[in-house]
Fold this protein.
Amino acid sequence: MKALLLNILSFLFFFQIVAQDSDPYLDYFHQNVEKSIDQRRFNYDDIVNTINTLSNSPGFKVEQVGSSVKGEPLNLICWGNGNESILLWSQMHGDEPTATMALMDLFNFLANKQNPAGEQLKARLRDSLSLYFLPMLNPDGARSHSRHNAMGIDINRDAVRQNTPEGIVLKQTQERLRPDWGFNLHDQSRYYQAGYSEQPATFSFLAPAFNKEKDINGIRLAAMQLIVELNQLMQGYIPDQVGRYSDTFEPRAFGDNMQKWGVKTILVECGGNPDDLEKQVIRKYHFALFLRAFETIMNKDYTSYSVSDYEKIPFNRRRMMELVLRQAKFDFDGFETNLDLGFQAIEYNSKDYSDFYKRGSISEIGDLTGYQGYQDIDASGLELKKGRLYPEVISTVSLLDKAFVAKLHKQGYTDVRIKNLPVKLNRYDLPLMLHSSKKNFVNNAVRLYGNPSFYLEDDAGNVSAVIVNGVYYSVY
């Protein structure tokens, strides 16, 4: 009986792997991923070759429909000749690139030769739908990794006034095409949580309101129904990691106004995912989302869903952190307590925007029940102590090998001085805080919005872990 049970379990495990590997959407993604982009910071120069290639690809039409404030091209890419039309625009916020990556993969899928099933899907989509894309609507913002355009204006608050060339292009495209559907593609903070699931909101959806009363007409209802289908797809990939974005009416925003103008509009927000800082896993699921959305619209499979199905998707909440340290013993000037600490990471651009570094920041102190960390550590029974500055000056960074760093950590040293500290070194990516040789004091006191270093010590006086730049490192 035991052997039979093991055989059944082995079969089920094998079947699960095969089922996962044979997912056609993910198979298409892996066959067509645009390999020239593998990080979330890129600019127009990194996608222009893909766009230019489409100009010579059968079935595609590429048209420059305007320019950004600084003269970067704004391209409208067209594919398909069906009666139902869909307009998708990405990266109107320059620092929100995930959908643009997935669109490059989608373009490869539509342009490249697929297996028979893939070719059949493409043929059905081509005959049923007309797809229109405005990828990277804010190329100036993408170049500086900024939300705003070069004028300092949020394009997504320019639907009415039309103060920006990018906003004008989007509005003129809507007026010209009169699309049936619109996909407003964004990224949100990785610190949103999917309801009370204690999981990040990797995707958040919204059928935007078209008035302050949040009325539901046939246009908005169809958007809600399609979102239910997309949520079901994502639940299969990332269970409990889908949220619903706030539906507060924003009269200046494109999504709200598109709904008002009669376009069935879906807001897609890409958030965080464990061990996926560059959003390459989210990109894969976003690609799958596009294909499911197109198939569902083509087949009208969304019509059986109700508003109540949509409302079951939980609102997202900003309750995620990089690190949550729980119930650590702490002596605050003689007052002993057990406290929780929550760290978030702030990204700072280099002067030429070619690189960035992350700096940890204590964003919450106290009872963090209801919050969740990507690193979530139970520090019960351990005492939180200020990190120590190593007394000797290290001649060069190259001496900080793994064994030496581990030795320092075990003694509670979190900060070191370097005689020849490289100017361009990203000192925040290391498991030690680095200082110049002239530094003779570090302030590692617990302080809100500060970035102190700590170590955790057990009752026997042994160091079990250190926290450096908001990252937890075990010494074991």
